[in-house]
Design a protein that fits this description.
Shape: elongated
Strand order of the largest sheet: 2-1-3-4-5-6-7
Structural class: alpha/beta
Largest sheet: 7 strands, mixed
Order of helices and strands: EEHEEHEEHEHHHHH
């Protein structure tokens, strides 16, 4: 069974969710010692990065973070590395032991499921595209809430209360927006708009204004 580790190159957001990383999955930094000690690497950086010169285990498998970027963006930067799949990871939507995964052309779903199961992670196989299912849902709810606020239909606190009482969600849309960060919400909506070529993901004017203030 492949020995797996989740690592970061430039970002340190893993520290924010350290207590949510499944106990069967080690985490660390990308260096020569780690490259030689593991067979499967999960690269958590949200933006594609270069892995550098190929060293360590020449047969290692690599899974990259496709929350904003597709598999091809990572493969273009790292043509000599065996990138087989993409997961969708973001500190605001880190699901702990349930991950969404995009399998590459040569990845076998059963093999991927077995590897992750040994680390205590259940997989949901999804099509290529930015954001997780939860992130798409929440960001669109947030955007609709900003449209409603801009039209002066109700106050932000009332919209939050109505959503929590009506849907049972743990947060209202404005509370969720604050928790995620307005800039991140806008980035997610723009990534979805670009990928799907659809205005349904167009950020509201009020959301854009507050994100840029």
């Amino acid at each position: 069974m492949a020995k797996a580790i989740i690592i970061s190159h430039q970002e340190n957001w893993l520290a924010e969710v350290a207590n949510q990383i499944p106990t069967g999955l080690e985490n660390g930094k990308w260096d020569l010692e780690v490259q030689s000690a593991f067979d499967l690497f999960i690269h958590a950086d949200i933006a594609p990065v270069s892995f550098g010169e190929k060293t360590g285990n020449p047969n290692s498998l690599h899974i990259v973070n496709c929350f904003f970027s597709g598999l091809q963006a990572w493969k273009t930067l790292n043509p000599d590395w065996n990138i087989v799949a993409g997961v969708k990871l973001h500190p605001a939507f880190f699901a702990g032991n349930i991950w969404e995964i995009i399998c590459g052309e040569y990845a076998k779903k059963a093999e991927m499921a077995s590897i992750f199961e040994s680390a205590g992670i259940s997989l949901m196989f999804v099509a290529d595209g930015p954001c997780t299912t939860a992130a798409r849902l929440v960001t669109m709810i947030i955007n609709e809430a900003f449209l409603t606020l801009d039209e002066q239909v109700a106050a932000a606190s009332d919209i939050d209360l109505a959503m929590k009482l009506g849907t049972g969600y743990p947060f209202g849309p404005f509370e969720w927006a604050k928790k995620i960060g307005l800039t991140e919400v806008v980035k997610m909506l723009l990534a979805l708009q670009k990928f799907h070529n659809s205005d349904r993901y167009q950020p509201s004017k009020l959301l854009l204004k507050q994100a840029h203030d």
